[in-house]
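Practice problem: Pantothenate synthetase
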Amino acid sequence: MRTVHTIKELRAVIRSYRNQGKRVGLVPTMGNLHEGHLALIRRAREASDVVVTSIFVNPMQFGAGEDLEAYPRTLAEDQRKLEQEGNALLFAPTVREIYSAGLALQTQVVVPEVSEGHCGASRPGHFTGVATVVTMLFNMVQPDVAVFGEKDYQQLAVIRKMTRDLFMPVDVIGLPTIREADGLAMSSRNGYLSADERRKAPAIHRVMTETGAALAGGSDDFAGLEASARENLATEGFRPDYFNIVNSFTLKPAEPGDRELTILAAAFLGTTRLIDNLSIVR
Ligand code: PAF
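Answer key — structure tokens:
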């Protein structure tokens, strides 16, 4: 596997793939790769001839006081894992390579509506940072397909809308969340949890599953279910950020006629913010 750090090198390698008639798959990541990321790479391999993975801890999507500095950076270990998965090319640029004029002067991609609410409300500017860097990566790599995890449900909705609205010639594939044996969604941020917090963490999935069962059973008492889920999470030691039952397509509050519902949740355990989601068809 080859690793490149500059856009110039990246473009030269991509050009050689194109000259060989290869279909290119892209997996954008922030590194600290776990089984969830490796599943994305396997899916990209199925859908393309060569997989390009990017590792870039994107400062534009972190707010003041968030974990930009603390975010785990494990390049050598990530390279080893990518090599084993048959990833063809790793693009690992510096912040200066991506934002050469500085963040303040960066052209931004704003995706309305679907970026609002949920994580968009708790992390102002986050999805603009995500949409901007993903646009840049799409333009640099010009992939045929790009694979993202459904764990970041709102992020995936933002990227799908952006791709559609801006006529980007990329097929966006979403992959179901990969979970630990006890139900906790895999995330690089799980590494921040103390042993005690790690024991409590699966409760977020458990509470969502209980709420999902009530929804599947026909309950339309969305506000009541959300309130009792927040209470249950607090009892389990979480500080809930949001617990919202939404229409799976619009991400707007669920209405009684909706058949496809998604529960979107974010909650803190100590200083670690965990997110998860669960979709129900009824
Ligand atoms: O999901 C992530 O890891 C990031 O938000 C992404 C898509 C790589 C953009 O920085």
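Discussion: The chain has two domains: 2-175, 188-281. Students who identified this feature from the tokens alone can consider the problem solved.
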